[in-house]
Amino acid sequence: MDVTNKEPIGYATVAAIGSTTAASTDDHGDFILKVNPNFSKIRISFVGYESQDVSISNETYQELTIYLVPEEHTIETVAITAPRRAKYSNKNNPAVELIRKVIAHKDENRLASYEYAEYRQYEKVSLGLSNLSEKFKNRKIFKNYQFLFEKEDVETGNSRGYTLPAFIEERLSQVYTRKKPNTTKQLILAEQRAQFDPKFVDNDGLSAYFNKLYQDIDIYESNIELVTNQFLSPIAGSSPTFYRFYITDTVKTETPYLVELSFFPRNKADLLFQGKLYVTLDGKYAVKRADLSVSDDINLNFVRDLDVKLDFKQDGHKRYYLQTSSLGLDFSLTDKGTGIKGNRTVTFDDFRTGVAQPDSIYAGPSVVKVFQESDTTLDETYWATHRPIALKPNEQNIYRNIDTLQLIPSFQRFMDISALILSGYKQAGPVEVGPVNTFYSFNPVEGFRLRIGGRTTDRLSKRFYAEAYTAYGFKDEKWKYFFSGTYALNNKSVYTFPQHYLRASIMRDTKIPGQNLDFVQEDNFLLSFKRGENERYLYNDIYRLEYKREFENNFSYLIGLSKWRQQPAGILTYQMLDNQGNNRLFNEINTTELSIGLRYAPHEEFYQGKLYRTPIYNKYPIFYLNYVAGLKDVLGGEYDYHNFTLGADKRFYFSQLGYADVNIEGNYILGNHIPFPFLNIHRANQTYAYQLRSYNLMNFLEFVSDHSVSANIQYYMNGFILNKIPLIKKLKWREVFSVKAIYGGLRDENNPAYTNNVFDFQKNEDNDPITYGFGNKPYVEASVGLTNIFKFLRVDYVKRLNYLDQPDVPKHGIRVRVKFDF
């Protein structure tokens, strides 16, 4: 307050000296300032008064009454009218000149500039439900869970609701980096997290997913990957094109002096940050601190708040290394509803440079656990002495609360129901029944189809797993069935990475020739709706034995031996001309196959669900090689052939221009007089759903080949164009484009047009062929679409570009896909 008249001074600035932490007084001269214990003085300043520095103690709470003295020379009140705001320009802009100097000095200021560096790293990720109301907390269902709820505090000191802490993970590591060759090796010394019941949740996959969302933030990288998207760094080479920069302050309370550089996205809908950089004025132009957030209008789903704080510390070589990194994310379906709030804090200490370690330290996988899960010394005493920062009280409670929560019967029921909804399986003691989306379906051959099935869990055995189902078609009046038994050779669940098992299975069921669906099953109810004629089916009898082995480096192989009997169903026919020129029908064909599959997916991460692994995409490619040999005269096999498939998947990132998923695949089949069921029947789609791996305007059995090469490109622009269109950008739609092309051939000895030793291709009711080999051009289809409609729909207009004169083929169509994405 004013020392002369004891009147309160409103809107005075209160700041911790040596820090960017500051607050303002309100109309009554009151303020609240949270200060790190490392700072011992605060400064109070206001125009027309002399600034005053006040010492503070290390006490948790202090009350201060501060008087300011009016300056001797004051100015009269004047009215200032701001001129019309000038258009922002990079030209002759000192802020842009400064950021260009920061960009020019990036390489010498980042960690990668050291020949050798090493440091101790501590990571902590904690999450919980946020913004819970008193009414929500006091619901009857939570009567036994009151111990879980905690008051939620925000920066102002006010509470806006309750939090429900639900997850925490800590990791302590020793990290070594080397410049030539560029290598980073992380040795995990200790790790712990709150564990859910593994029969409901894949804890390792959950951890991998959270760590993908809460990634390391390297301000010196041109593109910063965050919540599965790439954000352009404010110090990327192209940042002046996408950001507006302003010099907003000079910090003279630190040595060297710092320039506060504020930045904002030119287009608020783009995947860009806003915030402040504190740049050193010592000729090095290093980033000393960074505060990053995002615009409220950003085209980013489900993220209510994002906050990044980076602090750098100077080492003995006058360079700056990252000392602390904090990333806070608040996820929610709506702006004001209940959400999931989390924070990842990383600290770096014991930083040393110039120490060359033996080559053995840098060799092998980039991340290695050097501790044993059963090590009893890694208890709370260990963590209490090795954590560089203590856990908050609510974080300390998470470990105990999660264990207690899982003992409450009602919570078990809740998890059971959640697992049923999300995975389709219902727990029933040592078995689980499902998946429920296959219980009912229909098709032209079977008509109305009912199915019931299930599998055992590790409650019955941790080594042996059984899976079975039975189904009945009311039109063909036939029973179908499947049974498999799997024995884990590494004493782990067969769904746990790395897999190592032996499996035997028996199946009798229907199938559309050439269809192998990813992440769904053919008797899924939603796939019962198909366009066009789709009455050509198979009855398959398959006996199969397979051995699978995965390794920690994400290389795996699968060896299989199967005996396969095919019987045509519906209007599918197997026929050929005999020596007298008469049609000869075949009721079944038999083959014995030996298969070997190799797969290498470096740095692959995924979430293991009840049925499928959901990949967590990254920049690394995935390679696969499959070989299938038909063995004639072995277990009744009637044909010899050798089928080779080589392919690769890769996601390419283009910064602000989005990303593309690319698949390249080649296939070659060796052998003569091979009937079309054993050729490459190219994957078609006659449903109204957009399928990523299928040709969406190709008919079933339309194209076959014995050698081919294909390319599948899905390009997501993330709204780069639509974000620039007024009004449209408020919808937060995003552009998506795709091109699928395949070119192949069919040798004369496998083509019924040139030989009578193979089955005739299929014909329609008008006796016109509906199955073809490729001509002198590839099959191509392309699409343009919108994704992020209502935040979960993708709608494509698909056009077929050639082979348009073949009967009953669609030239274009609308396809829909459900796609949740940030």
Automatic annotation (TrEMBL):
Species in which this protein is naturally found: Sphingobacterium arenae
Name assigned to this protein: Carboxypeptidase-like regulatory domain-containing protein
SUPFAM superfamilies: Carboxypeptidase regulatory domain-like
InterPro entries, A to Z: CarboxyPept-like_regulatory (IPR008969), DUF5686 (IPR043741)
Pfam families cross-referenced by the UniProt entry: CarbopepD_reg_2, DUF5686
